[in-house]
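MOLECULE: protein
FOLLOWS: sequence and fold
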Amino acid sequence: MTETETFETIRYTADVVVLTPGGDVLLIERDWPPFEGHWACAGGHVDRGETSREAAVRELAEEPGVHVAADDLHQIGVFDQPGRDPRGRYVTVAYAVTVPADTPITAGDDARTARWWPLNDLPDQLAFDHADILNAAKTA
C-alpha cells in the first residue's frame, strides 16, 4: 500500500426481517437520524465479540421486544452497496425469521413505534436499502 492509499472505515451491522405465517412483516419507525420517522427492519451494529447472528437476536429483543433463538434465523443476504447509509460505509448481514402472528411487539430503545405491515403493502418511507432487503426476503 502506498502513502496515498487510505483504508475506508467499514461498519458491520445485522438486520432482521420478521415475518408471520400470514405474510405480515414487522417494521420499526426510526426515532433518530438518519431516516428519522422512516420505517426499517429491526437491526443495528454488531458489538465487539458478537457474530452478526448474535447481534440480530440482541437487536430484535431490544428494538421490538421479540425474542427468538439464533438457530431460528436464516441468512437472506449481505448488503454492502456503497452509499446505502449516509453516515458512511455499512455492511449488513440480513436474516429472516418467522414468528407466530400473535407475537407481541413493543417499541424499544431505538424505535419510535413498531407495527406489523402486509408484506405486499409496505410504507413508502423505508430507511436505507430496506426495500431491497425485504424484496430478498420475499424470494428467500
